[in-house]
Amino acid sequence: MKNHLLIFAFLVLLSTGASAQKKFSVYAVGFYNLENLFDFTHDEGKNDSEFLPTGSYHWDEMKYTHKLRNMARVLADMGTDKLPQVGCTFIGVSEVENAHVMTDLVNQPPLKARNYQFVHVEGPDRRGVDCALIYNPALFTVRNVKLVPYVPTLAKDSAYVTRGFLTVSGTLAGEHVTAIVCHWPSRFSGSYYRELAAEQVKALKDSLLRDDPDCKVMVMGDMNDDPTNRSMYDVLSAKEEIGKVDDGDMYNPWYNLLAKKGLGTLTYQGSPNLFDQIVLTPNLLDRKGLKDFSTLKYFSHQIFRRDYLFQTEGAYKGQTKRTTAGGVWLDGYSDHLPVVLYLVKELKD
After folding, report:
1. Cα(212)–Cα(80) distance, rounded to whole angstroms?
2. Residue 294's closest CA among 242, 345, 232, 218?
3. Is this structure's pTM higher than 0.90?
4. Parallel, antiparallel, or unpaired: how do β-strands 90-96 and 250-251 relate?
5. How far apart are the first and last CA of the chain?
6. CB burial class (10 A; 0-12, 13-18, 19+) of residue 151?
7. pLDDT tens-digit series, residues 57-110
């Protein structure tokens, strides 16, 4: 099975000399906030009344079916800019209600064609939304799954029981890789709650590296904070330049997209935010500039954009085309754009 990866190898010029051409295997990983992927039946103990036929969204089988189709289209397209036949090796997702919607999602034709599977653990969120990971088992072998709970520190924080940190460890390109899929507390909470999430994710990341220093860790998710906010930059210590990344830090390739280029994955009151991020441990970086890609290394990243993801007319022209806006069903996608990150590993003769 691994031999088929050679089909997806491409040539990368690492210097100006033609003799420096080398072949690499390329892998895409992504994250996408699916914006309320709910089915249309009630889950006991969950506050999902809005997404019932009698609820405010008048959510029914037809709308649910369209939502599945639209989400599958995006997920299947992610990563195809560099890997048109393959797409992403794995994609973290947020705002999914349960295992039922994930089963229906991976059974959509464009995802089923790649035999995508999923990992999901039911969490404590009162609205019933969780994180999950879809993956291509031909490229990524899942070894261990756990949902690490988000732990409020004060008694009054019981109101903020929310999504945990879905931690999926496995094998990619023969290496130990772990994805920590997050959906941190919302902006309606104070920044303290996201900084607490960052503190807990950092402790989780550090524990994974203590167990195996060679483990390649990616923290991904909707952080509800920008790369420039304290939770990401100071607490998680996700730095904007590879040269600034020390052993205990992480690298945040999205920082400069927002800070220098003004690009984001969503817009609020006319200003961009870049809440959707994938940040990397130092062992995924060529920190010394040696161009040693004998193990998996970061190569590039992108905010994933397609014309169909945007409004083409009306007051919200140019903004993301949501499923519903202003009480009107738009048959759209999400209020967030996806992000994709590419990894490479040198092929040996």
Report:
1. 32
2. 345
3. yes
4. unpaired
5. 18
6. exposed
7. 999 999 999 999 999 999 999 999 999 999 999 999 999 999 999 999 999 999
What is the Cα–Cα distance from 61 to 347, expressed in whole angstroms? 47
Among residues 224, 253, 242, 219, the alpha carbon closest in space to that of 342 is found at: 253
3-state secondary structure of 329: strand
- What is the per-residue DSSP string for 23-44? EEEEEEEEEEEEEEE--SSPPT
Concatenating the DSSP letter of every residue in 96-151 gives E--HHHHHHHHTSHHHHTTT-EEEE-----TT--EEEEEE-TTTEEEEEEEEEPP-
- DSSP 8-class letter at 277: E
Q: Taking the CA atoms of 90, 91, 93 and 96 in sequence, report the sign of the dihedral they define.
A: negative
Tell me the one-letter amino acid at 316. Answer: Y
- Cβ atoms of residues 187 and 226 within 8 Å: no
Q: Are 57 and 331 in contact (CB under 8 A)?
A: no
Q: Which amino acid does the sequence have at 179? A: A
Beta strands in the chain (DSSP E): 10-13, 21-37, 90-96, 117-120, 130-135, 140-148, 165-172, 175-183, 216-222, 238-239, 250-251, 266-268, 271-273, 276-280, 297-303, 324-325, 328-329, 339-346
Q: Decide: residue 131, CB within 10 A, 0-12 exposed, 13-18 middle, 19+ buried.
A: buried
- Name the one residue in this structure whose structure tokens are 């193990």: 295
Instruction: Give pLDDT tens digits for 285-340.
Output: 998 888 889 999 999 999 999 999 999 887 778 899 999 988 889 999 999 999 99
